[in-house]
Amino acid sequence: MMNHTIIAKRLCYAAVWMTLACGAQQPKEPITTTEPTKTLEDADYRPHFHFAPEKHWMNDPNGMFYLDGTYHLFYQYYPDGNVWGPMHWGHATTKDLLRWDEKPIAIYPDSLGYIFSGSAVVDLKNSSGLGTRENPPVVAMFTYHDPIKEREGRENFQNQAIAYSTDQGATWRKYAMNPVIPNPGIKDFRDPKIHWDAEHQQWIVVLAVLDRVYFYTSKDLKEWTKVSEFGNGQGAHGGVWECPDFFPMPVAGTNETKWVLIQSLNPGAINGGSGTQYFIGDFDGKVFTPVKAMQNLPENHSYWLDFGRDNYAGVSWANLPEKDGRILYLGWMTNWQYAQEVPTETWRGAMTLPRELTLHKQQNQYRLHTAPAQELWAYTDTIRYQKQVTVDADITLAPGSEVDLTKTVITFSIPDVAKQKYTFQLTSAADTLTFGYDGNTDSFFLDRSAMATSGFHPDFASHQVIAPRISKDKQITVTLILDTTSLELFFDDGVTVMTNIFFPKFPLTELIAVQSIIPYQLKDVNINQLKL
User: Fold this and answer.
1) Active-site choice (42, 44, 60, 524)
2) Is 134 exposed, middle or buried (0-12, 13-18, 19+ CB in 10 A)?
3) How far apart are CA 61 and CA 196, in angstroms?
4) What pTM value is reported for the model?
5) What Cα–Cα distance (Å) separates residue 308 from each residue in 63, 304, 352, 356, 463?
6) For 28-67, how does the pLDDT look when each residue is reduced to its tens digit (9 = 90+)?
7) How many C-beta atoms surround the C-beta of residue 269 within 10 A?
8) CA angle, corner 326, sides to 320 and 329, nearest 5?
9) What is the separation of C-alpha 462 from the centre of its chain, rounded to a whole number of angstroms?
10) What pairing do the DSSP bridges indicate for beta strands 327-332 and 312-316?
11) Which residue from 152, 150, 139 is spatially nearest to 114, judged by alpha carbons?
């Protein structure tokens, strides 16, 4: 992962002349701008560089793989409405993780059921026999959800099936002998995630089952054997476990490798509704054993991939080139509590920005860190840079007269944090979105209750979003990414992340640093415009 210092240096190089022009001190008086009067509508809420389908409903990311320079994204899609319905697999591709090309629907429901969540891999050695060595197949595993059996009250209405493509994911054939993992009589039995286990020379599937996961292994992607379970009494269980992911990761700065289990659940997230926790441990080819610090992990824990309300069901891309060396992740950017009622009509649902995951160990604790995919920085232009800003009054850091706040990346740090509040506000003529750090409670916060468009669902702005600070460093680093109706906050080099959507009534006009009890400093304030 690229740390905050390196990011700041890259951005500073493009702005040295701005440093000389602006000096070391931000003016104390806020920059005044003309408040726009245009009320935002459905089309104005569409993201610039986060994927969202042109029309209709979307939820979980599925089947993500990389092949010949192209990143493929499949997703839960209902093409006949803007709320959840009979699930298909939609399809989109990108070359650079920011500009997306929506494709025709990839996999349709049939007599066996709807096409629920799953994953895909490029079967490079043609172990499945569904392609050739010269033209290896892409094999997708998904959950068949049979609505007829569900209405009849039967338990076995979810089964795992495969489909394959020999034209790089453009078209798909369903395997004639489906299902490949039949339901043993369990109501919630879904969301298979495939991984090639190079160490043990086998395919692995991790499957969400009620309040835990099952592990299966295979040599050919068609015949599967259950080898173990994990999750009973481990971590949060306020809802059903869903959409797992499982892969090995090197521990940064060491020769150690650990296995990471990412596990979504709904409800039961730390800030309500749906969310994603994680576990770190070892895997012997059959059994996953969490590290000592995470054994018997209580319900109320701090191992969350994202503490915000709006990052769910995320999984990683398969088949990234070995020379790339990254784990790239993508999530669904909303929350099941209100996803079907957000104030967009033509389309509903967007994905988070693709993110890089890295694993770190400090004081005998393993933690995942998250950063925006490095491709983002190729599309940024520095609009304003200040080496140091003294906040002894409300200061406008990013005026809408200079930067389009619908597509902006802003980075800064807060040195020597004290026991006081550090508050920042994104504002418009009728809206205020507040976030920051409270040194009294050692926690980050976000409040969207003062947004004019927040009453469409009682849970949307019912309480502040709170995240415990995990880093013990004296300095807080901040990266915030704005894309029309989303704010992604990466604190402390991404060990704490908060993703939240919002729906302003009017265009945002400024980012303000709010004065606190004691004046404080901000360092290396970079305001960057996205060139998309």
Assistant:
1) 60
2) exposed
3) 19
4) 0.93
5) 24, 10, 12, 17, 12
6) 333 334 445 578 988 999 999 999 999 999 999 999 999 9
7) 26
8) 85
9) 22
10) antiparallel
11) 150
Task: Walk across the sheet containing 347-348 and list its strands.
Answer: 100-107, 88-94, 70-78, 56-67, 347-348
Structural tokens at position 215: 């592990």
- Please confirm, yes or no, whether 146 is among the known catalytic residues: no
Tell me which DSSP letter residue 44 carries. Answer: G
Q: Tokens in use for 515? A: 């004065």
Find the helix or strand (DSSP H, E) in which 11 lies. Answer: helix 4-13
From residue 52, alpha-carbon distances to 61, 77, 243 in Å are 11, 11, 20
Question: Measuring CA to CA, how many Å separate 170 from each of 90, 104, 105?
Answer: 11, 8, 9
Q: How far apart are CA 381 and CA 365, in angstroms?
A: 37
**26 pLDDT tier (thresholds 50, 70, 90):** very low
Which residue is associated with the tokens 């840079």? 385
Q: Which amino acid is at 263?
A: Q
- Residue 57 tokens read as 């409903």
Beta strands in 123-256 (DSSP E): 138-145, 158-165, 173-174, 189-197, 202-209, 212-218, 225-230, 240-250
Per the CB < 8 A criterion, the answer to whether 149 and 156 are in contact is yes
Token pair, residue 492, equals: 């402390």
